[in-house]
Amino acid sequence: MDLFEYQGKQYFARFGIPVSPGGVADTVDQAVTEADRVGYPVVVKAQVQVGGRGKAGGIQLARSAEEVRQHATNILGMDVRGHTVRRLWIERASEIEREYYASFTLDRGARLHLGMVSAKGGVEIEQVAEEDPQAIARLHINPVQGLSEQDARTLVERAQLEPEAHAGAVDILQKLYRCFVDGDADLVEINPLILTPDGRVHALDAKVTLDNNAEFRHPEWAEYRATEVLDEREQLARSKGLQYIGLTGSVGIIANGAGLAMSTLDVVNQAGGSPANFLDIGGGADAHVMANALEVINTDPNVRSILINIFGGITRGEEVANGIVQALEHVEIKAPIVIRIDGTNAEEGRAILQSHQSAQLISQPTMLEAAAKAVELANLAEARR
Amino acid sequence: MSIFVDDTTRVVYQGLTGSAGRFYGLRNREYGTRVVAGTNPRRAGTDVEGIPVFATVREAVSQTGATASCVFVPAPGVESAVMESAEAGITFIAVITEGVPAQDEARFYNRLLQDFPQVRLLGPNCPGIITPGKCNIGITAGEIATPGGPVGIVSRSGTLTYQALYELTQKGIGVTTCVGIGGDPVPGTTFIDCLERFEADPETRAVMLIGEIGGAEEEKAASFIGEHMSKPVVAYVAGATAPPGKKMGHAGAIISGSQGTATAKMEALAAAGVRVAKNPTEAGELMTEVVRGLAR
Does one domain contain both B87 and B145? Predict the structure, then answer.
């Protein structure tokens, strides 16, 4: 789960990382109230989970209440690369002497934590990595031992930060690492980490990605869930406990297991079609889950055909077949369904479907034939429109 | 021959008394696996259809001679379950549980590496391992696999592993061992660990590798194959058409930037001499050709 900047800063603050004082605003009036509270000058910042908000005009300096009013009016409702700005973060403006970069993440290849610090902050780190890889100091950290003060110092020295920034940066790195580990983040990133003219170091931005698997020990994450940006289909799917990702094509996909679902997207593309979604009903899915999955797919107006690809391991063929039959009885499914079932109790499943075979429900013996049929039906429906 | 597990492997199920642990523990026993014990501190002294339940893994090991563990406990308890097994002398730990926090995985993987280097960890979030006809630890439906070889399988995906076993069985081809390494960010066992073992196993004469988007493990496997493997390899990588930046179910399955695309992985594998299929069915067909071409 990605956090908004203001949430990331609040998360940082829990771990003692210095951030600028500020407040959240959803309206122009609230923006002015927050600005009055934190003190001028302030920066009015669009809260969107996408890069490029600065270029789009989503970050503005304001010296007075009038300026805050003007910028807030412009920024609220603004579109930043397809994301509409609904919330602002108003914070006290900082004087900047230097801009640095700092992050911790998991290096999956090495199966170790990776800390990165650079004296070249304020720009995309990918760009620095490409143009001047030497400018990024990297250090692997063993998760068993964790980051020592000496490790933090090594990173800061290798990155050649200004000497007056050393003590502050070492302190922040240790806190940022605690935020990464105890805060169960996949990524914590400060860009820019700034040095002020009076020698203080603090986080001017915050990028935090939380590990969904750790939610059980973080009840406080519920407030972040509430503000998560999902499309309507994704929201419905989540409420039904399904792994769903919306795409833009016309063939609705239901499969069991992430790998098989991905593979199903592949074969639909190879057959000349385009998938409308990724939907993994997981292991052991029963009739109820299948009915829910069909209901979610059914809300997508772009779907012209539905491909159900099931390989029974834990999931049993007759359960899947019963689910489809039940769903067809309860929900009016708009698009024709093509289904392939193999594995555990596949024959029982096929027998159930056989008795309900129609133009709306077609069984195919293999994954490839099923994909070809679903694409054919989708293209046919598209041509008729 | 087989890799990692065979008919002498004695398995304790951590979480045997839970619904999944019970279902698969019994299923694995029915398959022929030596399911010798279960653990649950609150149910010590009872049994699950004849399988004795102990309070700790240490007791299970001393009473039954268990050498391997299969972990079904819920995600919050996985880290301590894994460490408990290692401390009790277990040398093969398969973690089936999904949803384990990445920080926990990173910690217990490295702790095992430092303090218990003899332990082989498989997973978390994996379907387990099956040596057809001898030993099935985990959630694979054993009946879809044909015993005997000559093919070894290693896969990051559960259902695609079943698909691969099924495609080979349809063509009458047997499997020495099929290892599901799982799709989590910190897998205990990697492609290379399995490729190394398959290369050394005389009964395995060809290998099927099933990868997916995300990370760089398939690329690393490709360079290992190019440099160290004499046996033919057939590969399939799922997610050629997955959009970047979207997690496809598995925590590991995400394309970030230009990293981890299926195309890059397939190219790396092809460059190492691997026959790369564009879907699981084609992988089965390519493997059939490979097996037919093996010298008798």
Answer: no
